[in-house]
């Protein structure tokens, strides 16, 4: 189980918390150079299963009712698009995330709740699915930038610019954009 996100969405009055990915099939990656100094990555056909807790506030005629429960999300055929720039710092290459987007083509959300209002919630299935997709997009891109790109840059900075190889061969490089 991978803890994934804990976000709320006040304008729509739906909170999604304790989301956990239980199954993940990575997408197929396609990487291309992007002019002038960048990389474009497109990942397609991935899938995952996610379990989450939710709280929503349903406005009824005279009052707002709170509905809480759990949701199971099955998502497939998701597409991730990343655009990155390659920069130079101290003659080392560094990667900067320029654009990030996640789109999920097929999503199914199943709700579990003890509330009698679950039928009303089921009519909002499309809206809640869109919220889940948006929150996944936000969280994925945030983590991509804060964790993965930072780790890659840290690893790149640790590569020595001058190295001795077997057979009296040497590597000496400088990276400039």
TrEMBL record:
<dbReference type="InterPro" id="IPR017943">
    <property type="entry name" value="Bactericidal_perm-incr_a/b_dom"/>
</dbReference>
<dbReference type="GO" id="GO:0005615">
    <property type="term" value="C:extracellular space"/>
</dbReference>
<dbReference type="GO" id="GO:0008289">
    <property type="term" value="F:lipid binding"/>
</dbReference>
<dbReference type="InterPro" id="IPR032942">
    <property type="entry name" value="BPI/LBP/Plunc"/>
</dbReference>
<protein>
    <recommendedName>
        <fullName>Lipid-binding serum glycoprotein N-terminal domain-containing protein</fullName>
    </recommendedName>
</protein>
